[in-house]
Specification:
about 120 residues
Length: about 120
């Protein structure tokens, strides 16, 4: 695996994180609208729980983004064009792929459940 391929894969992972953040922003807006309607206390507690989950995910995304940027910087500093298979760089990239995949799957499940709850509340 060469540098360009590693760069492309890191860029793809970062784009996935961007998409999660954009969708979370939409959820925050829905949550804000819900709270503006001053619904019952049980919905406020639920909204606070959802907000905390969003904050936790945002922190995870920021940490992943920072780690991937560090990996990209380390690869950039390598002056030679070498094959990166079975190197610490490749292993780090595989770890990031797993983490982003987990985060994306967890987010999709959470978003589906949360959207259903929003629809129930709005109805």
């Amino acid at each position: 695996m060469n540098k360009e391929l590693l760069y492309q894969q890191i860029a793809g992972l970062l784009k996935t994180l961007d998409n999660i953040q954009e969708e979370q922003s939409a959820m925050k807006r829905k949550l804000s609208i819900l709270l503006d309607k001053s619904l019952l206390n049980n919905y406020i507690e639920w909204a606070e729980e959802i907000h905390q989950q969003i904050l936790n995910r945002e922190t995870a995304i920021q940490l992943l983004r920072k780690d991937m940027s560090s990996l990209k910087k380390a690869i950039t500093l390598k002056k030679s064009i070498i094959i990166f298979a079975d190197t610490p760089y490749h292993k780090s990239l595989e770890k990031f792929k797993e983490q982003v995949s987990y985060l994306e799957n967890e987010f999709n499940h959470w978003a589906q459940f949360t959207n259903e709850k929003f629809q129930t509340i709005s109805a």
